[in-house]
Amino acid sequence: MPYLGSEDVVKELKKALCNPHIQADRLRYRNVIQRVIRMSKLDQWGQAEVLNFLLRYQPRSEEELFDILNLLDSFLKSGSPGVVMGATKLFLILAKKFPHVQTDVLVRVKGPLLAACSSESRELCFVALCHVRQILHSLPGHFSSHYKKFFCSYSEPHYIKLQKVEVLCELVNDENVQQVLEELRGYCTDVSADFAQAAIFAIGSIARTYTDQCVQILTELLGLRQEHITTVVVQTFRDLVWLCPQCTEAVCQALPGCEENIQDSEGKQALIWLLGVHGERIPNAPYVLEDFVENVKSETFPAVKMELLTASLRLFLSRPAECQDMLGRLLYYCIEEEKDMAVRDRGLFYYRLLLVGIDEVKRILYSPKSDPTLGLLEDPAERPVNSWASDFNTLVPVYGKSRWATISKCQGAERCGPELPQTSSFAASGPLIPEENKERVQEVPDSGALMLVPNLQLTADYFEKTWLSLKVAHQQVLPWQGEFHPDTLQMALQVVNIQTIAMSRAGARPWKAYLSAQDDTGCLFLTELLLKPENSEMQISVKQNETRTETLNSFISVLETVIGTIEEIKS
Amino acid sequence: MISQFFILSSKGDPLIYKDFRGDSGGRDVAELFYRKLTGLPGDESPVVMHHEGRHFIHIRHSGLYLVVTTSENVSPFGLLELLSRLSTLLGDYCGSLGEGTISRNVALVYELLDEVLDYGYVQTTSTEMLRNFIQTEAVVSKPFSLFDLSSVGLFGAETQQSKVAPSSAASRPVLSSRSDQSQKNEVFLDVVERLSVLLASNGSLLKVDVQGEIRLKSFLPSGSEMRIGLTEEFCVGKSELRGYGPGIRVDEVSFHSSVNLDEFESHRILRLQPPQGELTVMRYQLSDDLPSPLPFRLFPSVQWDRGSGRLQVYLKLRCDLPLKSQALNVRLHLPLPRGVISLSQELSSPEQKAELAEGALRWDLPRVQGGSQLSGLFQMDVPRTPGPPSHGLSTSAPPLGLGPASLSFELPRHTCSGLQVRFLRLSFRPCGNANPHKWVRHLSHSDAYVIRI
Question: Which ranges carry the MHD domain (chain B) (predicted)?
Answer without folding.
Answer: 184-452
